[in-house]
Design brief:
This protein is an alpha/beta fold and 375 residues long. It has helices at 13-26, 45-52, 66-76, 96-107, 136-143, 181-187, 199-209, 234-251, 256-272, 331-341, and strands spanning 3-9, 32-38, 57-60, 82-86, 90-92, 111-119, 167-169, 176-180, 213-224, 286-290, 302-306, 320-325, 346-352, 357-360, 369-372. Helix 1 links the parallel strand 1 and strand 2. Helix 5 (136-143) runs parallel beside helix 9. The two termini are 39 Å apart.
Length: 375
Amino acid sequence: MQLSVIILNYNVRYFLEQCVLSVQKALSTIDGEIIVIDNNSSDDSCAMMKELFPNVKLIENKENFGFSKGNNIGVAQAKGEYICILNPDTVVAEDTFHKIIAMHEEISSKAGIIGCKLIDGTGNFLPESKRGVPTPWVAFTKIFGLYKISNLFGKYYAQHLTQNQSGKVDILVGAFMIIKRDLYNEIGGFDENCFMYSDDIDLSYMALQKGKHNYYFHETTAIHYKGESTIRDQKYMKRFQEAMQFFYKKHFKKSILFDVLMEIGALLFSFTKKNQSKFTKREINKYIIFSKEELQLNLTKETIILNNLSEFKNEVNLNIEIIFDTKSFNYKEIIDFMNSNKSKNLTFKNYIPSSNFFIGSNNSIDRGEIIQLKN
């Protein structure tokens, strides 16, 4: 078997359904399998999987084991030569796996982990798609946003490459990473002692320690709906500090410098937090539905149905929500459209006919939105 796709789920039933649908399409020309591990969700994720995807291997954990252990449980049962670690709030294009495996085989024994270009639910590039080793100074430039000022401070987000350049990077994000199963096992998988924010950093770094090269591959794109929040508060600071200290303790030594920098950061955040604002959803003035079917969605605003993506012309004076019928258009077409037409006045949702709901996200700080329609 060529590829095993490992999806760890916790209480995101609708995102999981769309993710599995997209993965099934992407595996249509590949000898592969999907393994879903559920970390004791309280929603009906498992019931949905059994009803809609009875041929997909489902592992039901009796407790929430966290990201690292949950993924390790799935990989232990995988049969593929390659492993894809994939978040449930992602959508892959039909060509994603094929292109990345072809690249992996081209660079052969040198390849460690390969990641792809990730965009959020509005089509904007997610910079965590490619990163550098977070030394104390690099972590400091990230937490204080210095990388936005100049590429001189751009190592955290590997700004030696643009989003449209493929090449070597140090660190890849756990939302999407492809690695050979033998290398994953040689590394020992995700370190189950890792805290939040460091599990993917640790795995990527361990691949480098094995003499491998990690790669960012821009020629295929996936959607990751739950982008990293741009709002930084003291809770985030504490988790980020704990994650980095775990990484430093394991691979380097305890960093007094980093502790001092983070204490300064926490103090500054106490003064600036009150000025932070959360994303607020704008009122939709118009819906445009792309579908080749006669859909009756009963939306409350003006609605236009188009059967060809090329017919779209933006009206910048209106807030428009675009709805893609996933039965009429494949995910690559949808992702390409989002990449090409992203705009401040546009939001995107996908319509999943099999379960009659819309799904999407209006901002990278938004956890995502599901709208269930009446049958």
